[in-house]
Design brief:
Length: about 525
């Protein structure tokens, strides 16, 4: 199992400084005992212009089996030939990551008493791993290393057998990384991503692995586009540990945001907890959005309401405080979000009468769902911008075409207002998961087309301060089904008495024929 690290230098900054940074003298080979074999450090070349350090791990397969007792890939189908015959001796894995952490411990921490300035500055590096398991293929290798500052990420597939090309490629690649990075950053990335790409560990993953992940991922993991995949794989898909790591990473990000904006962490944390838009500060904007939604629902005389994409349940909680909403259903694709919402609502301690008013359902909004039909109103609050644009027609049909509530309330960020967020870089959306953010004109065009296709009318309202130049931070559309308009206009606005007969089972304000009502129920 081999890993090489090379750098180039000049007369003033010779490449042999790599020996100081790694704390291993280029003039001699050194060996270190590990739990599963012996790690050797040697320098195939060591000159002022170029220097290469090699970490060679000689794995003892017997020790691996005895210490592992079948855990990890040693006891999995990968080792079908036997526990003693597998890819561990030559394929980079968590074994190499552990050896790297033991042999280059000081280098991983970025400490070098002899040359502290060299340890703190980027070096021209070339890292090569001849055999790397890549569950996900070369594309995943590029996805993981690409955002980390490397100018070149090459993952060359290794054939199953060069003599039989028809057999195709194996799941192994030859990895080459080139770029200017701090040595400590490069080593920490390798420490985390080698076992992630292998998608296995040779040892039991204990709670202290979260600390190791956060320590090695400091400065790059929190902002990585594939953070969820890295965290899950590194922690062997242990849900509890993955959740703990995610929450701690989010907490670290909150601390950075607070420090950057001169705020208390609690203020930033409240803003994030109240809304999916971390940039929507202060918190009252989220309260204004909920107030606008509640006002639209009350104006529509809605009693049974769907909160589609309910997240952590803030709107559901607000709806339950108003007794006019007799049934509130929160729907979200995320089981974790629903769990948080249940805790927020205290469903387990809720009284029987109150509990009968609320339901939390797991479901995707891009698929039709019979459970969502027959409701007075549906709310899509800060939801549509989290979908890829090609998926919007599916959501449109599921809500307006299949569920067909009488009223639909949609809110979404107004991208024109983003220039008013001082802490938001130009050209950036408000949240990393936003796939798009629309101008007022774009939102109105989309809403108008949806209303026309599905027989709705639509009205628009600002949410938050309405800037004369760029509009409000949030824009809201209220869709009303055309036949609902007809029923409302057929009833006198001053008439508050129930004019239906004892045998009439339709809504008090419904003056349409029985045939029309049947069609509506069927829809």
């Amino acid at each position: 199992m081999l890993l090489t690290i090379s750098t180039t230098g000049t007369v003033d900054k010779p490449a042999t400084d790599l020996g100081f940074l790694l704390h291993k003298h280029p003039g001699r080979a050194q060996s270190f005992t590990t739990a599963h074999g012996t790690a050797h450090v040697l320098y195939p070349e060591a000159g002022a212009d170029r220097c290469t350090a090699a970490l060679l791990l000689d794995v003892d397969p017997v020790a691996l089996v005895r210490r592992g007792k079948g855990k990890g890939r040693g006891g999995a189908p990968d080792a079908a030939l036997a526990q003693y015959v597998n890819d561990r001796p030559y394929a980079a894995s968590s074994l190499l990551a552990v050896a790297l952490a033991k042999v280059f411990k000081s280098a991983l921490h970025g400490s070098c008493a002899a040359l502290p300035e060299r340890a703190a500055e980027p070096l021209p590096l070339r890292v090569e791993v001849p055999v790397l398991p890549a569950r996900g293929g070369p594309e995943l290798v590029s996805r993981l290393f690409g955002p980390l500052g490397w100018s070149r990420v090459a993952a060359e597939p290794i054939a199953l057998d060069p003599e039989f090309p028809a057999w195709g490629d194996s799941r192994y690649v030859r990895l080459v990384l080139e770029g200017e990075l701090r040595l400590a950053d490069a080593l920490n990335q390798l420490y985390v991503l080698l076992p992630v790409l292998d998608d296995a560990k040779h040892y039991w993953v204990a709670p202290d692995e979260v600390d190791k992940l956060l320590r090695a991922g400091d400065g790059w993991l929190a902002d990585h586009p594939d953070r969820a995949l890295i965290t899950s794989r590194y922690l062997s898909r242990r849900w509890g540990l993955t959740r703990e790591a995610t929450e701690r990473l989010e907490r670290l990000e909150l601390v950075r945001l607070a420090e950057a904006d001169g705020l208390d962490v609690e203020d930033v944390d409240n803003a994030v907890d109240e809304t999916t838009d971390t940039e929507e500060r202060p918190v009252p904007l989220a309260e204004q959005r909920r107030a606008a939604i509640l006002g639209a629902l009350r104006a529509a005389d809605a009693a049974r309401v769907l909160d589609l994409g309910c997240g952590q349940g803030q709107l559901v909680q607000a709806l339950l405080k108003d007794v006019r909403f007799t049934e509130v259903v929160g729907v979200d694709v995320s089981a974790r979000a629903l769990s948080v919402a249940a805790r927020r609502l205290r469903l387990e301690r809720m009284g029987e009468r109150q509990a009968a008013r609320v339901k939390l359902l797991q479901g995707s909004l891009t698929y039709t769902d019979k459970r969502l039909t027959g409701y007075d109103a549906a709310v899509l609050s800060e939801v549509i911008e989290h979908l890829d644009l090609p998926r919007l027609p599916a959501l449109e049909y599921a809500v307006f075409g299949a569920a067909r509530p009488r009223t639909v309330v949609v809110t979404t960020p107004n991208v024109e207002y983003n220039v008013r967020w001082e802490s938001l870089p130009a050209g950036h959306v408000r949240h990393g998961d936003h796939r798009f953010e629309w101008t007022r004109e774009e939102f109105r065009a989309w809403a108008g087309a949806v209303a026309a296709r599905h027989g709705y009318g639509v009205e628009f309202a600002p949410v938050g301060p309405d800037d004369p130049e760029v509009g409000p931070p949030t824009q809201m559309a209220v869709f009303t089904r055309a036949d609902a308009h007809a029923r409302t206009s057929a009833t006198s606005p001053n008439d508050t008495t129930d004019t239906t007969s004892p045998t009439d089972t339709t809504d008090a304000s419904d003056t349409t024929s029985t045939t029309d009502t049947t069609k509506e129920d069927a829809a």
